[in-house]
């Protein structure tokens, strides 16, 4: 071809809203014999351009928000907002006229995951087990799950579902004696929890109750023995005096 255009695929990078991201050009061979270099947003909008031997020209929308390295042509984008989500492409124009994409990133800016809410909608208890249904909800979605627990284990019906805002996830599960409602995305997570024993009161450790009962019995028996011994000694002393 007289003038060749080389395109590459974009890698996805998730960034927390308000944070910075560094976009690198990893293929050093592409940076040989450069006539013009530019970083573009969504193919058409220029972030910055630099011609051979000249200083970088940062476009007005990115003034004060860009750091550019003349050594490796990397760019740092600062204080990213949701409107900055999109495809960023490093474009190299050679002296020969060939055009090459030197790097391409699909940037997705996400806010922190909102705090979810875990609620118990129904509880059914028996002497040996407890069954209850919980709802794990966020601002845009919810998930229901039913747990059946005894003093040793819990089984679960229901699980993880992702819906509403793209790339966000809701999950409800049990761990270490608690039910956990977790809301997350690719940059953050948060949760709400409830202790199983606060939902199923009869699942308090029966062994702990037995120990308490044994201690009470031992104390009572000991007290009775002590009182009996005192009475016996007193009676014997009284009998000896009468003699």
UniProtKB/TrEMBL annotation:
Domain of life: Eukaryota
Cell compartment(s), UniProt: Membrane
Segments passing through the bilayer: 218-236
Name of protein: SLAM family member 9-like
One of the Pfam families matching this protein, by short name: V-set
Any one GO CC term of the record: membrane
Keyword Plastid found: no
Domain Immunoglobulin V-set: residue ranges: 11-109
Gene3D superfamilies assigned to the protein according to its UniProt record, in alphabetical order: Immunoglobulins
Keywords: Glycoprotein, Membrane, Signal, Transmembrane, Transmembrane helix
């Amino acid at each position: 071809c007289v003038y060749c255009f080389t395109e590459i695929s974009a890698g996805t990078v998730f960034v927390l809203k308000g944070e910075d991201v560094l976009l690198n050009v990893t293929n050093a061979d592409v940076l040989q014999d450069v006539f013009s270099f530019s970083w573009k947003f969504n193919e058409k909008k220029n972030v910055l351009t630099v011609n051979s031997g000249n200083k970088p020209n940062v476009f007005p929308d990115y003034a004060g928000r860009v750091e550019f390295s003349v050594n490796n042509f990397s760019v740092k984008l600062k204080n990213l907002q949701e409107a900055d989500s999109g495809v960023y492409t490093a474009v190299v124009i050679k002296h020969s006229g060939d055009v090459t994409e030197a790097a391409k990133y699909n940037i997705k800016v996400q806010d922190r995951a909102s705090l979810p809410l875990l609620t118990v909608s129904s509880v059914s208890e028996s002497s040996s087990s407890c069954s209850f249904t919980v709802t794990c909800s966020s601002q845009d979605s919810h998930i229901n799950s039913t747990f059946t627990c005894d003093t040793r284990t819990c089984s679960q019906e229901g699980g993880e579902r992702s819906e509403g805002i793209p790339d966000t996830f809701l999950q409800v599960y049990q761990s270490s004696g608690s039910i956990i409602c977790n809301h997350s995305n690719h940059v953050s997570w948060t949760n709400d929890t409830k202790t199983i024993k606060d939902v199923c009161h009869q699942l308090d450790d029966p062994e702990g109750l037995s120990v308490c009962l044994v201690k009470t019995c031992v104390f009572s028996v000991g007290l009775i023995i002590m009182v009996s011994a005192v009475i016996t000694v007193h009676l014997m002393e009284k009998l000896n005096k009468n003699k």
